[in-house]
């Protein structure tokens, strides 16, 4: 009860901003039960996979507790409008600790606070990462079940390959043999094409640094390929909520989903119980803590920020450090919240000799209304996609000087740099000028940060310090990424189309490391792909939070299933790795409890 005293005002504020208490996707006649076999904390990307798979067995009861509300939100359905969810009521609105390596900036770090979690607000890019990514994780944790080959069935359980809403022909844009047609999350190629697409493809023929790759999701992603997205054949976002908690699944009588309820702590059970932590404490409409019990397992799926936050408030962490914020230690696990890892991105803008870019749409509200009507009519048009049509991966040169001091963090078929090209700026208010953008990202970042507590109040935000660019490798690779992006756009394909660089980017000599570093400190932006804060590690290791079966070390009845368990950041946007991990984890749980 320690945190209650100091937080009465905050609780009052919470009461007044919640429109209903205990809103549930349940028949209203049914009350929350006292106990469930399984409780999933966080109805996000990973959590909903587990809830779906466990509740396939009608003999067990499953509860999902989600802090956010329903995903029945237009901006979450219309793919092109995804950026409008950033900073909305469906975003946790986190801000980083000041990043000394980014010139002292505190940067905003969106996370989905809505059913589906970040899969309901993200950019929908579908990228699995490479065989190296998973094989290196399997090797690190000493368990071949995490290797690329052994994970193939789980990739397929997740994926529902789908034609784009326009039904345009897509031969030659993907490799059908590496895709699944029987999973739950719809994946599709762009429904409409962008005017710059031909130049992107021409570049792959002109410059050997950027060869065409038929399918960047084959496990071998080097080169430039067509972007696949979590978008349905109806031109709508596919999230873990729309797919794993579809109406038929929500309808299962053994599955309850509680919305607008924020989990505060897990409580230790009485010694007679089988599992160590059996009680989930949460705050819903009344503003006062309530609780519910799990008889078999609690599955923490609150994401790379939420999961360590809940663990630490439950006393699971480093005892010395917990004592400092006034939290009683229940279980000594010093790695909780450590090893936070994200990607770092540089956004590179050029003026475009075109009027057919996103800026033209962004400036014209009547055009937007027409595009929305078209989307509503049949799910086609610009609004049926994220607007990004291509992405690709490039390796640093084998003789790059950085490898004299830092071992290569990527396997040989893995790029250190990701490049996407977009037909204008989808992230900012539209400018009067028309632009073309390249976003370049360092994939195998080595900087490690942390999630720590600011107070003993579980409703307070934690301190999130990703330590962007704190590692020499990340700074080196981001400089090379900018140069690679510039080479892409310097290919003859872009002659007469790409004009001058824009703003601060125009002011620097990109061959000059110091000038480039300064630009990157000023403009570097977060990948939003956090992993590592409840890291999986070998059984018996002195570091890490979970064993390779995702059970929390030293405890019974508690697992973690979300991005936080991924120990090494994949060279990918992270929703698909989370889906893969969650499908694998659900199978572990079902095996343990002999579920069908
Ligand atoms: C703006 C944005 C764009 C992105 N774009 C892409 C992209 O294009 N492609 C891609 O692959 N990846 C993208 N990502 C990353 C990807 O979406 C995430 O890595 C992934 O969805 C994380 O899954 P998760 O299950 O770990 O967490 P989440 O999906 O975030 O789920 C955590 C859930 O737990 C809930 N929760 C947290 N704390 C509590 C609590 N105390 N009580 C109850 N519930 C709680 C949250 O509300 C949330 O629903 C993006 C992320 C963001 C934020
Ligand atoms: C995030 O910030 C926006 C804008 O200030 C606000 O409307 C929204 O309620 C915030 N989200 C949460 C979960 O508090
Ligand atoms: C929900 O279940 C009821 C009763 O089993 C059934 O009649 C109804 O069709 C189901 N609805 C959906 C969307 O599956
Ligand atoms: C432990 O048992 C006592 C007495 O039966 C009960 O009041 C308390 O709620 C239990 N605690 C938990 C965490 O289950
Ligand atoms: C961070 O992860 C590395 C493995 O990548 C491990 O060796 C190290 O011990 C971890 N640190 C903490 C504090 O858990
Ligand atoms: C906005 O879009 C509409 C519909 O395409 C078009 O008729 C109009 O000319 C546009 N306005 C401007 C200022 O370009
Ligand atoms: C969808 O509707 C638009 C008009 O709103 C029309 O131009 C287009 O042909 C339709 N597409 C399909 C595939 O029906
Ligand atoms: C790497 O090798 C290439 C030729 O293969 C050479 O041009 C370049 O200068 C070398 N770079 C370094 C840093 O040695
Ligand atoms: C931490 O607490 C201090 C003092 O209450 C506050 O000023 C600061 O904003 C908090 N930090 C975060 C990340 O919430
Ligand atoms: C812009 O493109 C047109 C052809 O579309 C070309 O005639 C013109 O020279 C280009 N402008 C510049 C500055 O390259």
Automatic annotation (TrEMBL):
Positions that bind FAD: 263
Gene Ontology molecular functions: flavin adenine dinucleotide binding; oxidoreductase activity, acting on CH-OH group of donors
Cofactor(s) the protein requires to work: FAD
Signal peptide span: 1-23
Keywords: FAD, Flavoprotein, Signal
One Pfam family named in its UniProt record: GMC_oxred_C
Active site location: 529 (proton donor), 573 (proton acceptor)
Domain of life: Eukaryota
SUPFAM superfamilies from the UniProt entry: FAD-linked reductases, C-terminal domain (SSF54373), FAD/NAD(P)-binding domain (SSF51905)
Glucose-methanol-choline oxidoreductase N-terminal domain sequence ranges: 112-135, 303-317
Similarity section: Belongs to the GMC oxidoreductase family.
Name of the protein described by the UniProt record: Glucose-methanol-choline oxidoreductase N-terminal domain-containing protein
Organism in which the protein naturally occurs: Pleurotus ostreatus
């Amino acid at each position: 009860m320690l945190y209650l005293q100091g937080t009465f005002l905050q609780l009052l504020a919470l009461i007044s901003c919640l429109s209903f208490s205990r809103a549930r996707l349940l028949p209203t006649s049914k009350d929350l039960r006292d106990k469930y076999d399984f409780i999933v904390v966080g109805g996000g990307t990973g959590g909903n996979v587990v809830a779906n798979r466990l509740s396939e067995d009608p003999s067990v009861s499953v509860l999902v507790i989600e802090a956010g509300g329903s995903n029945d939100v237009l901006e979450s359905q219309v793919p092109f409008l995804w950026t409008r969810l950033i900073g909305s009521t469906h975003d946790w609105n986190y801000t980083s600790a000041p990043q000394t390596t980014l010139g002292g900036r505190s940067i905003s770090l969106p996370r989905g606070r809505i059913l589906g979690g970040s899969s309901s607000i993200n950019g929908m890019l579908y990228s699995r990462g490479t065989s190296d990514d998973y094989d290196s994780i399997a090797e690190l944790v000493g368990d071949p079940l995490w290797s690329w080959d052994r994970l193939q069935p789980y990739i397929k359980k997740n994926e529902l390959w789908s034609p784009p809403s326009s039904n345009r022909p897509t031969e030659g844009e993907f490799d059908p043999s590496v895709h699944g047609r029987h999973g739950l999350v719809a994946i599709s190629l762009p429904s409409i094409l962008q005017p710059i697409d031909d130049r992107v493809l021409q570049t792959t023929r002109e410059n050997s640094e950027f060869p065409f790759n038929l399918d960047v999701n084959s496990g071998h992603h080097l080169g430039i390929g067509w972007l696949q997205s979590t978008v349905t054949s109806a031109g709508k976002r596919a999230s873990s909520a729309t797919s794993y908690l579809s109406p038929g699944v929500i309808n299962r009588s053994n599955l309850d989903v509680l919305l607008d309820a924020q989990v505060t702590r897990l409580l230790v059970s009485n010694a007679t119980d089988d599992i160590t932590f059996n009680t989930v404490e949460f705050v819903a409409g009344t503003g006062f803590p309530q609780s519910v019990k799990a008889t078999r397992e609690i599955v923490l799926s609150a994401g790379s920020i939420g999961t360590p936050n809940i663990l630490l408030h439950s006393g699971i962490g480093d005892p010395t450090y917990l004592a400092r914020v006034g939290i009683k230690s229940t279980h000594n696990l010093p790695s909780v919240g450590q090893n936070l890892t994200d990607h770092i991105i540089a956004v590179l803008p050029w003026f475009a000799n075109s009027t057919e870019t996103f800026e033209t749409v962004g400036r014209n509200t009547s055009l937007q209304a027409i595009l929305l009507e078209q989307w509503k009519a049949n799910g086609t048009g610009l609004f049926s996609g994220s607007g990004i049509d291509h992405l690709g991966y490039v390796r640093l040169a084998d003789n790059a000087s950085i490898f004299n001091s830092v071992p290569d963090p990527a396997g040989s078929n893995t790029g250190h740099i990701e490049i996407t090209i977009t037909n204008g700026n989808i992230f900012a208010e539209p400018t009067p000028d028309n632009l073309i953008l390249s976003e370049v990202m360092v994939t195998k970042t080595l900087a490690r940060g942390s999630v720590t507590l600011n107070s003993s109040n579980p409703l307070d935000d934690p301190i999130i310090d990703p330590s962007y660019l704190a590692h020499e490798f990340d700074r080196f690779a981001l400089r090379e990424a900018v140069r690679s992006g510039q080479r892409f756009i310097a290919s003859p394909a872009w002659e007469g189309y790409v004009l001058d660089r824009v703003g601060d980017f125009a002011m620097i000599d990109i061959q000059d490391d110091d000038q480039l570093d300064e630009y990157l400190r000023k403009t570097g932006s977060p990948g939003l792909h956090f992993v590592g804060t409840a890291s999986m590690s070998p059984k018996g290791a002195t570091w890490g939070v979970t064993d390779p079966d995702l059970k929390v070390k030293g405890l019974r009845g508690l697992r973690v299933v979300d991005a936080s368990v991924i120990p090494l950041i994949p060279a990918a946007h992270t929703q698909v790795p989370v889906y893969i991990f969650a499908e694998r984890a659900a199978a572990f749980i079902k095996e343990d409890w002999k579920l069908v």
